[in-house]
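Note to self: user wants both folds in one dump. Writing first protein now.
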Amino acid sequence: MIEYKNVSFSYDAQPPVVEDISFVIHKGETIGLIGANGAGKTTIMKLMLGLLSGEGQITIDGLPVTKQNLSQIRQKIGFVLQDSDNQMFMPTVYEDMIFGPRNYGMTKEEAEKRVDEVLKQLGLQNLKHRYNHKISSGEKRMAAIATILAMQPEVILMDEPSTALDPVNRRTVIHTIQSLSQTKLIASHDLDLILDTCERVILLSQGKIVADGDCETILRDKKLLEENRMELPLCLQSRHC
């Protein structure tokens, strides 16, 4: 579904943010993308959408990420941004949620049905007609996730999806991720969330892949994590999982 071949990216004359990255993600996989601040997690996602342009080759469902293919590729991918304020641009949650499906050709009736289904799935019916500037940061984060799910993308990218969430909404996001059949790439410092949702982890350090494999095996490797400026998930520190 997703393939990176020798991908590198740097800003101007700066050292590479991502250097000679290669990996494959198969259809239906849920992958955790982890690493300390500045490891290159968000950059990898932006390269996939053509928001940044680097060296090497990236393909999505057989389509090379090129300027000519960006429209098709972006219809396949939904991106939950780290900062919800950069994602929610319409006055109300409903208007944001219906914008994508309508823009991609869904009838108004179909789009409205999809909006209601997603809101019910996430327990957010009360937010439907709320103004984005009048809801809390946690509610806005949940609304941003709902906006992407309403588009029914084949691939879902999530950049720090649990940021600003209270425990109840965080658990809802975890259950939602677990229930989705789409291919998912989740970048997060919340290693407990990664442990709960992902079967595989890609560990980045200074723009390079230092480990790629079974989620639990990597997240239980205290030495490996500490060498790359990370710590064991909290539940493993307390031996509750």
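First done. Writing the second protein, which came from a different request thread.
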Amino acid sequence: MKTSIRAFLTWFALANLFVLPAAAQQVKGQPDQPGNARKPGVVILATGGTIVSATPSPTDMANYTGQLAGVDSLLKAVPQIHNYANVRAEQIVNVGSNVITSENILNLAKRVNAVLAEPDVAGVVITHGTDTMEETAYFLSLATRSSKPIVITGSMRPATSLSADGPVNLLDAVMVAADPGSRDRGVMVVMNDRISAARYVTKMNTLNVDTMGALEQGYLGAIAGERVLFYFEPARARGELYFDVSAVTKLPHVELVYRYQGQEMQLVRDAVKEGAQGVVIGFTGNGNASPDHEALIREFGSKGVSVVRSSRVVSGIVTPKVSGSMATGSLTAQKARILLMLALTRTKDLGQISEFFAQQ
């Protein structure tokens, strides 16, 4: 059945998605469908991204336009989702994920928490661009607390392209959010029939539809036909580390700088000079800092500025080395920045922040 659904979705997406809507309105599901009252409630929170983008030609899969369709057009492209859940949708923001801001993800987390508190909601699906999807997913894993599933999805191909992957990814995401077996698994990324944990997922290819994955830790499960299959429990218990952002109005300024040969210290100093409360440095190898960087880390530490040592290497663990800094373990540099921002909402004590990183 799902093979026929895929074929239909590809045609339907091209025919219907770009009937442009009025953005920022709530779109209801289809409550008049037979048996709908017995289906789980799923709320889609849309943020934009490639999944609602257009290209000049169906064969052009890389040159997106700046105009993004709204969430109502996205729902029209995938009417089959109403077979699995009572669906309603909201437009949170409508931008590419390359311009998603700290304010956007803070507002998104607050909305997710509010929606999941509704008794008739079984889970949430978030549509999002893939460029920074892993950062939003990890932020939500730290800033939300619910046994109900939070599922993030998107696409690598624009809605108007041949073999657009967005409609099927959205269908899969709703299936996962509605599935009772998805409870207590935290935030998940669902793309290309695979289910990944927010803690480990990363974007691994610039254009391939099979871009979101976990290099070493693997996938939590998969979507096989119309079945949601889980292989493993989450690597860490849900809720071990949680930051309440309900009273947070602005996230702390944290910069991310990558190390390269012959790097001048002024680049790192400028980040702090411009008001950064913390800096994540993606060093070479196992977070290997030069003597100049080590001296700078100690200087910043004495001033209460948090410095986190990460690596520009695509996989592996960064171990503790330099006094006054924190090591990211297996966290990527971009996710380390997310954790440091949230840690600074609670404390500026370097010892306490180090404990947060040790838990990851």
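Dump finished. Worth passing along: The domain at 2-230 is CATH 3.40.50.1170 (Rossmann fold).
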